[in-house]
Amino acid sequence: MRLIGVYVALFVYAMSGPAVAADDCIPVHATLLLDNCSETLSADLVLILDRTRVPQELTLGGEDALVVTGAYTNGERVEPEGLVIEEGEAFDPYVQGWDGVMLIEPEGGLSLHHVARVRYRGSLSNLRDKAQRRAFIARARQVGLSAIQSHMLITDGMLDVRPVEGAPRFRRRVVFSYEDGRYGIFDSGPRALTLFEAGAEIQADYDPKMAFNLDMGSYDYCMLTKDGHKQDCGALSRSATAKLSNVLVFRQD
Questions:
Q1: Cβ neighbours for 199, distance < 8 A, ≥ 6 positions apart
Q2: Model confidence over 13-32: pLDDT tens digits?
Q3: Which tens digits make up the pLDDT trace of 85-142?
Q4: Higher pLDDT, 22 or 65
Q5: What's the burial of 231, exposed, middle or buried (CB within 10 Å: 0-12/13-18/19+)?
Q6: Out of 78-82, 189-193, 228-232, which region has the weakest mean confidence (pLDDT)?
Q7: At a CB cut-off of 8 Å and minimum separation 6, what does 245 contact?
């Protein structure tokens, strides 16, 4: 772990599955918060509806862990927006206009997809199609699959966002992935970027296949537990997280 400016850059070389050769690991930049190059890493989606804060037990285990804000939360009520499935249970079975879908398998494997081309265990689903979406949700229930939706900044290696005059600038946190299953988490740290600027920087530095935006701004929560020590790496303290509807949890055994 290295402290860079006011945020943590953690290099946890792990993946959920066979190890990747060192030569194939993700390029190391100060913006790389986490990646999955060699050891076992599991991901999990946790809905925290009707809680007064992010549950403390998420980081009480003996393993290293990273807990970060995941899907967007509705600004008027504490619930996630877009397609949301938690361990097979569809909290919201409908899709928003955003292009990105993150899948998390029961075993902890993570993958990123375009909403109209979701490949899972040999099947291809267009989640904008009502019948295909229903079939996908039924299959998710059978296997205990989790899913969230967000803006895709890079799709199939190409920028999926454009520069917009007056676009909001925030600290950005983005999950990006490759065809072979490698993935990493980008964190802009103290720098406030537009979605386009974040996507362009990720493309230039990491050249991934897909890049998926996480909720930030006033919803920016990040807690790292490393070697038994906790480190805040976001804007919100745990006592101020009643406004959050969900978090992503990454654990390294």
A1: 153, 154, 159, 160, 161, 174, 211
A2: 233 333 344 456 888 899 98
A3: 999 999 989 999 999 999 999 999 999 999 999 999 889 999 999 999 999 999 999 9
A4: 65
A5: middle
A6: 228-232
A7: 47, 48, 49, 71, 73, 74, 78, 79, 80
